[in-house]
Description:
Order of helices and strands: HEEEEEEHEEHEHHHEEH
CATH superfamily of the largest domain: Glutaredoxin
CATH architecture of the largest domain: 3-Layer(aba) Sandwich
Largest sheet: 5 strands, mixed
Structural class: alpha+beta
Number of strands: 11
Shape: elongated
Strand content: 15-25%
CATH topology of the largest domain: Glutaredoxin
Low-confidence stretches: 7-18
Number of domains: 2
Helix content: 40-55%
Radius of gyration: 23 Å
CATH class of the largest domain: Alpha Beta
Amino acid sequence: MLRKTHVITTLCSLIATVGVAKADQDAVRKGMEAFIGAPVVESVAETRYGDLYEVVLKSGELIYTDARVSFILDGRIIDTQTRRDVTQARMTELSAVNFDSLPLEHAIKQVRGDGSRVIASFEDPNCGYCKRLGRELAQLDDVTIYTFLYPILGQDSMVKSRNIWCAEDQAGAWNDWILDNKVPPSVQCDSSVVDVNVELGQRLRIQGTPTIFLADGRRLGGYVPAAQLEQALAGVEE
């Protein structure tokens, strides 16, 4: 009987603790949104470091505060015992995607070698770093590359993207432009996929190009040299 009473008491204590934690998180959310002046908080979680709360904004930014929102910390937490960059690890986790959920049929597909390694990239045809990335990707073998046309740099980018998508040889038209600066000829077709890609990229919080996703969902932002890409691909778990 005493054992049963002890179990009930423990459960009640746990429920009360969870309730307090939830109340604290709600208070932090309200305090942060009151300070910012808009409903911009996506999530709040208590950390194990110095009574700090992690606050993830809908923009994808990660900041820290205390239970009273008496300050805002925009910086990194480094665990001195493990030397782990806790903030970077969390940002990597938050920026990851479910790769299987990507609509790969809306991307330009290129297969090199056995195509066993897979990446997806969101790119604007007028992005200088995308052109540099194209030269790096050309060095990879045994890879399947899905390129999502993501024109965010102006109307000319949109026009080029539509013409590349409508080309008889999409991969050829893309590579001709990215690698050799050959302007894609004007072609008419249903290019609404480009608009869908832009909406998708916005939902994924892709704010710059190129942005690469590995098969395990990890995000690589910006220009990445071939050697670094090889290293990242080697780290993808089967």
